[in-house]
Model the fold of this input.
Amino acid sequence: MEENKMNTIGIINYGAGNIFSLTAALERLDVQYGMVNTESDLEKFSHIIIPGVGHAGAAMEKLKHTGLVSAIKALEKPVLGICVGMQLITAHSEEGDAALLDIVPVKTKKFDKLLNIKIPHMGWNAIEHKNNSLFEGVEDNAQFYFVHSYFIEYNPTFDIASAQYGLKFSAAVQKDNFYGVQFHPEKSGKAGEQILKNFSNLG
Done:
């Protein structure tokens, strides 16, 4: 796959989660990748992934400590936030009442126990996606793997895939060159690998 040789993914390395499953998935896809530790590292890669698990507020503090916040917000190349990485590109999280990167002007909210659902939302769930390059070759209602207690509010302006768990929420968003997925593509089998492959090939 020659096209992948030109496209390399930089993974923002800010200490907010285990990235082994992500790097293993990229290796299976023969997608070149490396770690982004400094602002100059951002220039080495054609595509950027912001990973993350756990607490969005704590992850934002870690990201601030890297000194990369303004550089990430200024990026014009494709950027993908995964799980907490997706939440970081929103404006605000109810988790820790934290101001985030505010790239996509939506909020990250807590699932309400009154909906009679188990929290966290954990396991496989179907998504309904829109006609978007990130989902090329992915069947509608394909199953993806989720682990989260907070969700991104549904907003049709930015939503590119939605899921149902007590309520309708955004499973994926896009604004310009910034994309986010709430599920873990690297743990979602063939459909998830297709997402990563599509992202690596975005122009």
Notes: The longest helix spans residues 189-200. The radius of gyration is 16 Å. Helices lie at 2-6, 20-28, 56-66, 69-73, 84-88, 189-200.
